[in-house]
Amino acid sequence: MDELITEEITSVGQLILERYKILEELASTKFSTVYKAFDSKMQRVVAIKKIESASKATTWAKREAQLSAQLNHPNICTIYEYEEVPEGHFLIMEYLEGLTLREILDVYDTLSLNEAIAIAREVCLALEYAHLNYIIHKDIKPENIMLLPDGRLKIMDFGTGRLLGHMREAQKTLIGTPAYMSPEQTKKERLDDRCDQFSMAVVLFECLSGASPFEAPSAKAAIFKVQNASVPDLVKLNPEVSQELADVVEKALSKDPDERYSTVTEFRYKLERAFWVDTDSKKVLSSLVERCTGLVEEGSQDTSQPVPVGKVKDFTGRLYLKNTRLINRLLSASFVSGLGFILFRDIAESYSLVLLLALAGTTLFFPSFGLLGLGVVALAALTLKGFLWPAAVLLCLGLLWHVLGRKNWRFELSFSLAASLLAFFQLQVLFPVVVALAFSPLKAFFIALAGALQVLIFQAFWQGKISALSDAISLSQLIIWPVTSALASFILTRKTLPKAVIVSSAAFFVLITAYLAIGASLNISPDWALKSASLSFIITMLVLPLIPYDYLDGHS
Q1: How would you classify residue 554: left for phi > 0, otherwise alpha for psi between -120 and 50, otherwise beta?
Q2: What is the CATH number of domain 99-292?
Q3: Architecture of domain 2-94 in CATH?
């Protein structure tokens, strides 16, 4: 067997250790090389890490094998064997075909709350099991977290890990990645399982904000920040994060271990209370991997569509995922300023452009104040037209929007304004279908309801159609729109082009049928609704093929 090992591993198809056939080289570093191989004895694909005998990494590899052998958990990479011969050390482990969290974070600036908390939850479950077996990892970082296509998550590389019983004395050497180390680890002090909690909180912070709180140009600078720098305000970096969730992360990032949570289990419980993942974690993570795989692999292209369409989808998908918050702000500013312009132009046309720019700038930087400003504009416009009671109602709605806007419903509230803008162009029936494509069922229901109410007010007062307040078809939209949007959104939980076309068509069919049924029962003509639905349907069918579903699914 020694003769088989002494020759350099250079060719695909070579047999090593008398049973492992090399299929391809996966990665290579200064200390080791990782191969994909086929185990002829057990008839399975494995990963083999080869470390030269003279390398310092042999100690880590042996420790990884010894520690991992004590762990049997679905979220921990399985180590099968460890072979030590004069010419090298071979660590045979489970072959994982997926993406590391680092590869995913290189694609996305931030992850959605669902995705980030799902990842934190699965990593915490693995760490809980390791800690119960008196093992700490000591090197939790995005590179050591692997996400698989079926939604499973695995943590890897226990090479720097230690048994808790061996950590009673201070460390002699500093091993790990400085930006993800706990302060006590950087000081080479005695460690316990709370150091893994700190590292996991750093990873979660990066997933939510787009950068590690201790990112620095050098290892020494990173260590200094870990030991001395305060943690940035997560809510300011990502407005979608609630203050409760930010407080949980900040506590886990405390410099003093005694100020953190007592266990990773408690940390996980607090995370789940601050933000509950509304879908099964595996579904969330499998969707994330599926979308990201095509971006990580160079040269991938959707061959099922013409090249120009594929390029448009690729461009729009990348653009949205890289600039999600900015694009949402721009859309909000467009809706608020556009509607403000329409409301004010009949009263003071010379100032309407100034108002548009003022509302756009306010909404772009202070979304909730932009919504409040629109409420004030609507109040002024209605008052000048003599509609005092509707003005009072809209003022209350503006105040409500301002309050809710400060609770992370800013974009959803401003999106509902699109209904009135579409009504201005006689395309209001398009709104509930767009909402179903863009939001979860619960949000779709309330946004469609808000949109229907705004269209009713817009038509009654600004377009001078007071009869809309007593028109059965207009009033029925307060029920038809939210119900249709919520049901369509529920069916479209996993978005694909064929499903989007079918569900959108069905939604338009339901809307048109409802309009016809109400018109027939009350002997009134639904002509305006049918014209709006017909034109909206044509526009929807033209736009649907351009939507990058693989990119945006789960990020809507």
Answers
A1: left
A2: 1.10.510.10
A3: 2-Layer Sandwich (3.30)
